[in-house]
Amino acid sequence: MNQQPRTIGIFYFSGTGNTKMIVELLATEFERYGSVVDVIAIDELMKTNKTAEVEKYDIIGFGYPVHAFNAPRIFFEFIELLRDGKQKKTFIFKSSGDPFMQGGSTALVRKALQKKGYDVIYERLFVMPANVLVRYQDRLIKQLCNTAVQRAKTMVKEILSEITKLQKNTFFSNFLTAAFSSIENYGARFFGKNLYVSDSCNLCGICISNCPTNNITKQKGHIIFHSKCTLCMRCIYRCPANAISPHFLKFFVISPWYEIQTIVDNPAIKDACISSKTKGFFRHFNRYFSEQ
Ligand SMILES: Cc1cc2nc3c(=O)[nH]c(=O)nc-3n(C[C@H](O)[C@H](O)[C@H](O)COP(=O)(O)O)c2cc1C
After folding, report:
1. What is the residue-wise DSSP string for 205-228?
2. What's the pTM?
């Protein structure tokens, strides 16, 4: 392994915290090998109109949550703003709620980065608790998070050893990604425009400052939602008064929301949830757990 200390910049988007957890695991691991790591939330950077100082780093990482088998729109908007990558070594990681089709194709993200001059050498999927549709049981949440710790260790070791590992993008995964993500793109704007607040809203403004796309404003004492939503779900889950709901796609929202770290730290949750004996829908997770 190349033990030379490296400077590493990790740029990420995380709607509800899962991708951020992976970023923290990776940063800790890189630091363990003597690297200096900066982690930068792209939405915070974009809100302040700052440019990513990519030239500072030897290795650059990009992380995102899978949305409809692709990256969220905000992530592509960020790539558009990037300066020339000057063929720097680049890794991509993504967090999804399900290992199906490796969370979709990485072709579009990889292509967008390569177009900007980034030499993508490594890609990896981390399956984390789904933040839409289905609330996973606590044992599965813990198993996913513990597995993420191991995968982050392997990933960092492989990157520092200059191992190239790119996800296989098949015709089917490329098709799935293209088809679903274009629907999601329009759906996100529609979803965001049709959010509303209930009477329990106390106008605290947390949703306004939390929103990565400045989609929420306060006008004449009312919370207004616009058409720039990237469907990250942060406003809904982080509202202290639990006052935000969608008019459409209500079934998307997991209720009640949960704090993953509390579940991970709970010593009473011991056994792994998925094994080779698992039957039913979650059976396909076992393959993910058996990979390194
Ligand atoms: C709009 C939307 C679409 C999603 N689409 C997928 C998907 O296609 N496949 C998948 O496995 N997970 C999907 N997920 C689940 C997230 O990728 C997953 O929970 C991720 O870990 C969330 O990361 P975050 O907390 O950093 O936002 C989706 C989540 C959202 C909000």
Report:
1. -HHHHH-TT--EEEETTEEEE-S-
2. 0.95
